[in-house]
């Protein structure tokens, strides 16, 4: 697990060739966002907020859950078999747990993953 010496980590994951049926499942997205924070040691603030879009070109679902440590968001495009995820946190977490969890749930074929150190000049003594 990376050691945070700055404000936090920002994981981005773009997945291609995902299961289009699962990408269109609003209940699955809700469950995913509701369960993921606990898996990486974060604390939820309420429940996921979900919006579904049915127009052909942008058909899919977007969801976000606020956590004490920041947020987790997921956007799906079922007709394009694409999923985009962000986990932004001032708390240390293991990105591989998120990657494995999302890949398994949505049967993702190929992924682009970035882990970005955020706030490199932030006074970390105040939050860590």
TrEMBL record:
UniProt entry tagged with the keyword Glycoprotein: no
Protein keywords: Autocatalytic cleavage, Decarboxylase, Lyase, Polyamine biosynthesis, Pyruvate, Schiff base, Spermidine biosynthesis, Zymogen
SUPFAM superfamilies registered for this protein in UniProt: S-adenosylmethionine decarboxylase
Biological process, per Gene Ontology: spermidine biosynthetic process
Any GO molecular function: adenosylmethionine decarboxylase activity
Keyword Amino-acid biosynthesis part of the UniProt annotation: no
Domain of life: Bacteria
Protein's name according to its UniProt entry: S-adenosylmethionine decarboxylase proenzyme
Record-linked PANTHER family: S-ADENOSYLMETHIONINE DECARBOXYLASE PROENZYME
Cofactor (UniProt): pyruvate
Originating organism: Candidatus Buchananbacteria bacterium RBG_13_36_9
């Amino acid at each position: 697990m990376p050691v945070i010496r700055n404000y936090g980590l920002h994981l981005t994951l773009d997945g291609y060739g995902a299961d289009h049926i699962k990408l269109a499942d609003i209940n699955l997205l809700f469950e995913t966002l509701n369960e993921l924070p606990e898996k990486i040691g974060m604390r939820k603030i309420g429940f996921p907020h979900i919006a579904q879009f049915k127009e052909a070109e942008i058909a899919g679902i977007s969801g976000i859950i606020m956590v004490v440590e920041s947020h987790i968001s997921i956007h799906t495009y079922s007709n394009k078999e694409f999923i985009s995820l962000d986990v932004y946190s001032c708390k240390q977490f293991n990105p591989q747990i998120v990657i494995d969890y999302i890949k398994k749930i949505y049967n993702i074929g190929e992924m682009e993953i970035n882990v970005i150190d955020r706030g490199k000049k932030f006074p970390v003594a105040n939050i860590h």
